[in-house]
Amino acid sequence: MIALSGSTLSFTIQYLDVKFSGDVDSNGTIVGTFVQHGTSVPLVLTRTIAAPVPSRILARQPLPVTGGVFHHDRSGIDLTLPDGWSVQGMETATNDPGEMAVLTDAGHKAAWASVWIFRAETHPADIRNLLDDSLARKIASRTGKERLPTEGVVENYKILPGTEEHMLVNGQEALRAIGEYKEAAGEPITELLVWIFTEHARAYFDLRARASKFEIFPPAFEELIQSTRIP
User: Fold this and answer.
1) Nearest one of 71, 73, 62 to 104, comparing CA atoms
2) CA-CA distance, 166 to 81, in Å (whole number)?
3) Given CB 3.0 to 4.6 Å as the disulfide criterion, which of 10, 12, 43, 207 pairs with 34?
4) Residue 36 near residue 18 (C-beta atoms within 8 A)
5) Contacts of 199 (CB under 8 A, 6+ apart)
6) Are 77 and 229 in contact (CB under 8 A)?
């Protein structure tokens, strides 16, 4: 039990026969006495701020694709890859609960293609708001307002007007949007984003290609998205 009475903080841990009582200073330091099994010693508690631990990217070998179906062992999600597409690698950040399958398109022309997969229990009533929040966090990360481990900050990132759409994928709630940004000294990059959330797992698809070539990719990527089977 922990209690604060005026400037005195006290706590007890009965099964360890531990007691503590101390005075809280204006700087947050607590000077008191620690007692265990009848023996008391002075104890000073001070506030410290741990240095942030930088995120690291961990990789593992690509999971096998059987009959064109990619089965993610940690989430139970199945995807049917379009003809000529493959899984290039599996990545996760040390502070990210999910895992990302990096994909390669048939002609190796996409700037980036991936699906992030995460097993999580979610109340059905919360899914729509979580989808909207995922898009908001994506925008915040891309514009430098919030840092996500697998996202980079880019110049003039925006969601194209009229492209944000709530929809269903195999009966599961999803959100689709198209973003655009410009690489340094390059032409604009168009980015197709789709999130699919269920009660038990989540998937996030990301396809990037140069704006002038973007229209050749969505049909195959849409085929991949529509093949998603989430438990």
Assistant:
1) 62
2) 24
3) 43
4) yes
5) 121, 122, 123, 124, 127
6) yes
The token pair at 114 is: 């991936």
Distance CA 152, CA 189 (A): 14
Give the H or E element holding residue 218.
Answer: helix 218-226
Tokens of 62: 């690509």
Q: Cβ distance 41 to 31 under 8 Å?
A: no
Rounded Cα distance between 140 and 162, Å, is 19
Distance CA 174, CA 222 (A): 13
Strands (E), the chain: 2-5, 8-13, 18-24, 30-36, 39-45, 57-60, 65-66, 69-71, 78-80, 86-93, 99-104, 112-119, 155-159, 165-169, 172-182, 188-197, 201-210
> Residue 229 has what DSSP assignment?
B
How far is it, in rounded angstroms, from Cα 139 to Cα 145? 8
Each residue's pLDDT expressed in tens, for the chain with a length of 231 residues: 788 888 898 998 887 889 999 999 888 899 999 999 889 999 998 877 766 667 788 889 889 899 999 999 999 999 999 999 999 999 988 777 889 999 999 888 888 999 999 999 999 999 999 999 999 999 998 888 876 666 778 878 999 999 999 999 999 999 999 999 987 777 889 999 999 999 999 999 999 998 888 888 778 899 999 999 998
